[in-house]
Amino acid sequence: MGLKCGIVGLPNVGKSTLFNALTSAKALAANYPFATKEPNIGMITVPDPRLEELAKLINPKAVLPTNIEIVDIAGLIKGASKGEGLGNQFLANIREVDAIIHVVRCFDNDNVVHVDGQINPVRDKEIIDTELLLKDLETVEKRLDRLRKLAKSGSKADVALVAIAEEIVRHLEKGQPARTLELSKEGDALLKEMFLLTDKPVLYVCNVEETAVLEGNAHTKAFQEAVAAEKAEVILISAAIEAEIIELDDMDERMMFLEEMGLSEPGVNRVIQASYHLLNLITYFTAGEKEVRAWTITRGMLAPQAAGVIHSDFEKGFIRAEVIKYDDFIRLGSEAAVKEAGKMNVEGKEYVVQDADVMHFRFNV
After folding, report:
1. Is the dihedral of CA 257, 263, 265, 270 positive or negative?
2. pTM of the model
3. DSSP 8-state class, residue 112
4. Is 76 helix (H, G, I), strand (E, B) or coil?
5. Which helix (H) or strand (E) holds 17?
């Protein structure tokens, strides 16, 4: 799909540690600002118990999960919108991602320096929000100048776009991100053309100490109150715990460690799944003796488009899709049993693929 999430935050909040845990990569995680200068890029596997259940029934030669791209972006400081620190690079890297994982520091530790001297995740978030908003204002105002020149011709369409751009400016000037602005169809099109930083969906990750990973702490409670109106998901994670987990090669050891921490799964699993949903993605499966595989598509895709994710020829020569609902496959135990029960549906070009559909495509090129 080519979709990717970017991990952002102030310097020294745990971005690279989280990236390492998500990708099992070895990005530099160090106790000083701007340890990450060039963005680290990795692929993360999307955990999906449904894939495992299908594999148990079919016993294929290979099991292939789906994945998404993750980018660890350089830390941001106040003034980034004017080029301070690594601001220009940071903002350019954010512009290239489809969704943002915003990490905020919610733990006290005198041994890990904070770029502003004290722990305050609400203030930290506001610093980043302000820099993104200022950069977006700069982008929209430049576009508005061009639109006003075009509108001098008297074109109703150009005059209408000027009004929309002015509305976007007013919204940003109030300190509100572009993603919270409701616009007309024409307004949405203009907004998308500008690739505004604050128009990207956001997931907040509160990096806490080990003892606060279940219930949170005073910092996380204050932060959750501050973002309540955004209706964005907030996840608590201890990057320190996740760093320890990836050092354990044995799965049984990992499970024992998680149990000791009172956790049912690694926190990164929740981050990955939330990121997947943030990108408006769903999964469909192909299942056979050769392989059971998960495929990533955007929610709302039609069957031919979904087929094209496997190979462009599948979309070009699409004839039909044979679809089994995941629950039916698990309940009945095999494709043959599903067919016998009359639970396999034959769908055409207008079929909207549903999450967890088990699909087989017929095509002719």
Report:
1. negative
2. 0.82
3. S
4. coil
5. helix 15-23
